[in-house]
């Protein structure tokens, strides 16, 4: 139990860092900052931080950087840039609570893409495949509920707001558009996970991969900004909240969160790390209601609950797969052990 204390604290801090980034980015973009320029600044700064530190960490076990590694990292950057662009647009149009709730769709979408690309077998007679399939369907249904049904406010912000009674179905086009952008963000993030697993298998130096990822995102976002943003004033980091948010995004949103999550992943495995994703919903609700004057709607509660149920169903199915692989590997080793014991006797 003592070995899990540090990973437990680390994952809570990582979730706090992510929710903080979601809330701060919504604040600055609501005040006019372009999401493309925000992505450029934060990833440029993150790559500058990771350039010396990543190569120093892997100075003794750095594999050779090949052309295929660069291409893989470029593809990671493209998927990551699209995920960030969709994600920040979705946050701007909706809320931090909806964003953290829909992030739990990522395991389900990852399972769907893995099946489509034949990286995972779908067997309806297998309990793990059934759990992952049903969990994905349930999660998507929960996303529809959270996006299309806003409902009445069940928690109102402590700060005064001009809130009015909400209809049964959300009639706010921005809320629905935000939900669609966030769903697209989850699809890109799922594709990112699959490509990342392939890249890390060929080039097992996590922090160098993260550096190249941030570097390519910075380049791609810079090109996009030159096309989309013709106003020179849009590049300004005034007021200071923009600069502070960019610094937070680079240090805590990229370097800190990735480093802590990677360390926890090595210490405990993917199942333990994934279990903390729904905590982000609770954190965003508390911060939004207590400090930002946001309201928490019934639709968000119902949708988030359904999404989390589907999330844990997919997680349970994946855990069963890991357990089955472990048992099969032990079974293959058993005859050798028996043979060695017989020889010793």
TrEMBL record:
SUPFAM superfamilies: Multidrug resistance efflux transporter EmrE (SSF103481)
Recorded coiled-coil stretches: none
Keyword terms of this UniProt record: Membrane, Transmembrane, Transmembrane helix
Keyword Membrane: yes
Subcellular location: Membrane
Database matches in InterPro entries: EamA_dom (IPR000620), EmrE-like (IPR037185), WAT1-related (IPR030184)
Protein topology in the membrane: Multi-pass membrane protein
Keyword Transmembrane: yes
UniProt name for this protein: WAT1-related protein
């Amino acid at each position: 139990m003592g070995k899990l204390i540090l990973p437990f604290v680390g994952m809570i801090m990582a979730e706090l860092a992510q929710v903080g980034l979601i809330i701060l980015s919504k604040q600055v973009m609501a005040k006019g900052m372009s999401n493309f320029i925000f992505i450029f600044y934060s990833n440029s700064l993150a790559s500058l931080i990771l350039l010396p530190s990543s190569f120093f960490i892997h100075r003794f076990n750095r594999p050779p950087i090949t052309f295929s590694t660069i291409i893989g990292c470029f593809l990671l950057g493209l998927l990551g840039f699209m995920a960030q662009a969709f994600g920040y647009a979705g946050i701007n149009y909706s809320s931090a609570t909806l964003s953290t709730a829909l992030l739990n769709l990522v395991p389900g979408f990852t399972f769907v893409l893995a099946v489509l690309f034949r990286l995972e077998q779908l067997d309806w007679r297998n309990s793990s495949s059934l759990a992952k399939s049903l969990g994905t369907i349930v999660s998507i249904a929960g996303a529809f509920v959270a996006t299309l049904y806003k409902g009445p406010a069940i928690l109102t912000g402590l700060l005064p707001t001009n809130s009015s009674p909400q209809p049964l179905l959300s009639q706010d086009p921005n809320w629905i558009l935000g939900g669609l952008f966030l769903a697209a963000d989850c699809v890109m993030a799922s594709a990112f996970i699959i490509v990342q697993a392939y890249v890390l298998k060929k080039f097992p130096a996590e922090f160098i991969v993260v550096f190249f990822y941030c570097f390519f995102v910075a380049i791609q976002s810079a090109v996009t900004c030159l096309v989309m943003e013709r106003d020179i004033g849009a590049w300004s980091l005034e007021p200071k909240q923009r600069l502070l948010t960019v610094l937070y995004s680079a240090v805590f949103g990229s370097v800190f969160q990735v480093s802590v999550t990677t360390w926890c992943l090595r210490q405990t495995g993917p199942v333990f790390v994934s279990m903390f994703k729904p905590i982000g919903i609770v954190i965003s609700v508390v911060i939004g209601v207590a400090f930002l004057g946001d309201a928490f709607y019934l639709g968000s509660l119902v949708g988030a609950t359904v999404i989390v149920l589907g999330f844990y169903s997919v997680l349970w199915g994946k855990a069963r797969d890991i357990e089955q692989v472990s048992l099969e590997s032990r079974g293959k080793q058993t005859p050798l052990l028996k043979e060695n014991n017989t020889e010793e006797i």
